[in-house]
Amino acid sequence: MTEVRAKKALGQHFLTDLNIARKICDSLSGGTSSAPCPVLEVGCGMGVLTQFLLRRDDVVTWGAEIDSESVAYLHAHYPEFAPRLIEGDFLRMNLRERFPEGLRIIGNFPYNISSQIFFKVLENRDLVPECVGMIQKEVAVRLAEPPGSKEYGILSVLLQAWYDIEYLFTVNETVFNPPPKVKSAVIRLRRNATERLGCDEPLFVKVVKASFGQRRKMIRNSLKSVFGDFGGAEHPFFTQRAEQLSVADFVELTNWVAAHRQ
């Protein structure tokens, strides 16, 4: 098999620039050569990133690949990798079962599921200390933006509650086959020191989602449409818009909602 055909339905755009693949690989921290840590590459394609990961002696590289044609290609070209290549949908994998001691995640993520990949990282935040991913540039900007930016949104707040996020570098369309219509970017998430948010965490998620539910409206209106009118009580944040609030502000607002909802 000489090459894998890119499938639109899987959001496949194969990276062809080896220097960028090496740079992505080098952006991930590892363990030591005596105690290598597991790394799961999501969407291995034709192994352009995989080959650099396999050269590192401080990581044990695993792969998750949903495309059977790519799996066959990888088996043929990287036979030493085959026992650790899992054919299947990363979004359905039980990471806790497969990697009970934890794992790092890396990949040129398919654009159409990049947000879902990050939600899965969040669900497994006690297992995933670090994630390096190439995604659509505008999504990368959104995730890394601080409060006050119009790009700052639901996933920005939820990820920034648990991870420090760095926008590492931009990648042009020309280094992919087929080239996407948009620029890409590589970001790195590293688990921060937060163990508990200091509020009801499921309610925190609900408050964040409700606040951004009507982006152009003040928080008062966004929250009322989900939680009711709080018996007429008002919070100082009610006259602000969701993108103005930091993670700490949303924690405070969540505690207020918990105390005042009917």
Automatic annotation (TrEMBL):
Keyword Transmembrane helix: no
SMART domains, A to Z: rADc (SM00650)
Ribosomal RNA adenine methylase transferase N-terminal domain location: 20-193
PROSITE patterns recorded: SAM_RNA_A_N6_MT
A GO CC annotation given for this chain: cytosol
Entry-linked InterPro entries: KsgA/Erm, rRNA_Ade_diMease-like_C, rRNA_Ade_methylase_Trfase_N, rRNA_adenine_dimethylase, SAM-dependent_MTases_sf
Subcellular location(s) of the protein: Cytoplasm
Ligand binding (S-adenosyl-L-methionine): H13, L15, G43, E65, D89, N108
GO molecular-function terms, A-Z: 16S rRNA (adenine(1518)-N(6)/adenine(1519)-N(6))-dimethyltransferase activity; RNA binding
Gene3D superfamilies found in the cross-reference section: Ribosomal RNA adenine dimethylase-like, domain 2 (1.10.8.100), Vaccinia Virus protein VP39 (3.40.50.150)
Enzyme class label: transferase
Chief site of localization: cytoplasm
E.C. number: 2.1.1.182
Keywords: Cytoplasm, Methyltransferase, RNA-binding, rRNA processing, S-adenosyl-L-methionine, Transferase
Pfam families xrefs: RrnaAD
Catalytic activity: adenosine(1518)/adenosine(1519) in 16S rRNA + 4 S-adenosyl-L-methionine = N(6)-dimethyladenosine(1518)/N(6)-dimethyladenosine(1519) in 16S rRNA + 4 S-adenosyl-L-homocysteine + 4 H(+)
Domain of life: Bacteria
Function (record text): Specifically dimethylates two adjacent adenosines (A1518 and A1519) in the loop of a conserved hairpin near the 3'-end of 16S rRNA in the 30S particle. May play a critical role in biogenesis of 30S subunits.
Alphabetized NCBIfam families for the sequence: ksgA
Family: Belongs to the class I-like SAM-binding methyltransferase superfamily. rRNA adenine N(6)-methyltransferase family. RsmA subfamily.
The protein's name: Ribosomal RNA small subunit methyltransferase A
Gene name linked to the record: rsmA
